[in-house]
Amino acid sequence: MKLRPGSRPEPEINLTSLIDVVLLLLVFFMVTTSFVREAELTIRLPEVADAGDRPAEVPALEITVSATGRYFVNGRALVDNRAETLRAAIVKVVPDGEADSVTITADADTSHQSVVTAMDTLGKLGFVNISISTVAATSAGK
After folding, report:
1. Does 95 fall in a domain?
2. Phi, psi (degrees; rounded to nearest 5) at 31
3. Whole-number Cα distances in Å, 107 to 60, 81, 119, 123, 133
């Protein structure tokens, strides 16, 4: 009579199914990953320039967009909100198409389209250095 229990077989770990699952996950993540690069926005940061190398003072151009979408060029209101009118006003202020600085100031409630129209008009006229200014909102309680 044998009182001792028989020897148990050693448990086996089958790695084949584990490797299959890891391989399938790897293939899934590779297929679902998007490698498309979206449009990039190139930003050129300002550099310090010597004040003596400027030949003449070039006028500054400031475009203000109100909450209703009205344009103001250097503080003067335009007759309507069309891009052609904005273009004509810019050409009148800066006839040679070269300004020392171009700043777009917009109200917080201004539609995005109005600001993009101003930027598009400036881009078509050849302006490449455009600044967008922001103003901190004042609270009603202060």
Report:
1. yes
2. -75, -35
3. 20, 15, 15, 21, 10
